[in-house]
Write a structure and sequence with these properties.
Layout: E1 29-30, H1 31-37, H2 43-51, E2 55-57, E3 60-61, E4 67-68, E5 75-77, E6 80-82, E7 90-95, E8 124-125, E9 134-140, H3 143-150, E10 158-165, H4 170-178, E11 181-182, E12 185-186, E13 191-197, E14 201-208, H5 215-222, E15 227-235, E16 238-239, E17 248-250, H6 253-262
Parallel strand pairs: 9-15
Antiparallel strand pairs: 1-4, 2-3, 2-5, 5-6, 7-9, 7-17, 8-9, 10-14, 10-15, 11-12, 13-14, 15-16
Helix pairs in contact: 1-2, 1-3
Length: 268
C-alpha cells in the first residue's frame, strides 16, 4: 500500500484514507500498548501474554512494564515477529443479519470478515453486533483505537433503532433512560425515544455509552418489551447513512479526525 493513502471506490472524489505519517508512531511505548496497536490483544490481555512468557523483545523474554522502540526493537509473540501497521485503516460495514462479529467461528457460520476483500493487512471488528442484529460495524487494524472506542471512560455513543414487542409506556421509557438493573448492575443513563408505533410493536431509538453483552435485548426484557430487531445506525461521529447491507467503505477524512479525537488519540 502506498504511504500516500488508500483510495476506495465508495469514497467521494478526492478522499483518501490518511497515511501513517498523519498518525505518527511515538519513539518508545509500553510493550502492552505496542501489542494492542499491533492488533494482537487488548492491553489487559497483552499483559497476560507477557506474564505467560510468550512475548520476546530482541530475542529475550519480555518483562511486564518494559518499553520498546517500534522501529529499532524486534518484538515477537510465540516466536512470530510483530510490527505496527504502516497504514491505519478504519472501515464502516453495514452488517447484515446472519453473520457473526468475529474473525472465525467454531460452528462454521459466516463472519463479517467474509464480507471484506483482502486489504493486505489484518483487520478486526470493533466490539460486536449480535448474530441477528444489523447495522453499522467498525473494523480496523488499529488496536489502540479499538480499545479506546470500547472503553467506557471515553463514553463513545452508539445509536440503535430497536423494534420491541408491544407499546412501551412512559414508565418503561423512563426506566430505560435512567437505568435498568441487570446482572452486572444498573445500566448507565441512555437516550431513549419512541420513533414509530405499529399495531403490536414499536420502534424506539436507544443511545448507549456502554456495551454490556446483549445489553439492549436484556434491557427490553427487563421492562417487559422483548426486542424483536436491532439495527445500529451510528457509532460516535460515524453514521450508517445509505450504505447497503453487506457493503463497506473507508472512513472519510472528517470521520477519521473526529473519531481519533473522541478516542483521545488525534495529534496535530
Amino acid at each position: 500500500m502506498s504511504r500516500k493513502g488508500v483510495k476506495n471506490d465508495s469514497d467521494p472524489p478526492g478522499i483518501r484514507h490518511p497515511s501513517a505519517d498523519q498518525y505518527p508512531v511515538p519513539g518508545t511505548m509500553r510493550l502492552q500498548k505496542f501489542l494492542a496497536q499491533a492488533g494482537v490483544a487488548s492491553r489487559r490481555a497483552a499483559e497476560e501474554l507477557i506474564r505467560q512468557g510468550r512475548v520476546e523483545v530482541n530475542g529475550q523474554r519480555a518483562e511486564l512494564g518494559c518499553s520498546v522502540d517500534p522501529v529499532r526493537d524486534r518484538v515477537s509473540l510465540d516466536a512470530k515477529p510483530l510490527s505496527l501497521p504502516a497504514q491505519r485503516l478504519v472501515l464502516a460495514l453495514h452488517k447484515p443479519s446472519g453473520f457473526v462479529t468475529t474473525a472465525s467461528d467454531p460452528q462454521g457460520r459466516r463472519t463479517v470478515l467474509d464480507l471484506i476483500p483482502d486489504l493486505g493487512v489484518r483487520i478486526f471488528p470493533v466490539g460486536r453486533l449480535d448474530y441477528d442484529a444489523t447495522g453499522l460495524l467498525l473494523l480496523t487494524n488499529d488496536g489502540e483505537l479499538a480499545n479506546r472506542l470500547l472503553h467506557p471512560r471515553y463514553g463513545i455513543s452508539k445509536v440503535y433503532d430497536v423494534k420491541v414487542k408491544g407499546h412501551p409506556d412512559q414508565k418503561a421509557i423512563e426506566q430505560l433512560r435512567s437505568g435498568v438493573r441487570l446482572t452486572e448492575g444498573v445500566t448507565a443513563p441512555a437516550g431513549v425515544e419512541i420513533i414509530r408505533e405499529l399495531p403490536n410493536a414499536a420502534w424506539i431509538r436507544i443511545t448507549l455509552h456502554q456495551g454490556w453483552n446483549r445489553q439492549i435485548k436484556r434491557m427490553g426484557q427487563a421492562v417487559g418489551h422483548p426486542v424483536l430487531k436491532i439495527s445500529r445506525i451510528a457509532y460516535g461521529p460515524v453514521r450508517l447513512g445509505t450504505l447497503s447491507p453487506g457493503r463497506h467503505r473507508l472512513f472519510r477524512l472528517d470521520e477519521i479526525r473526529k473519531i481519533y479525537e473522541d478516542a483521545g488519540l488525534y495529534r496535530e
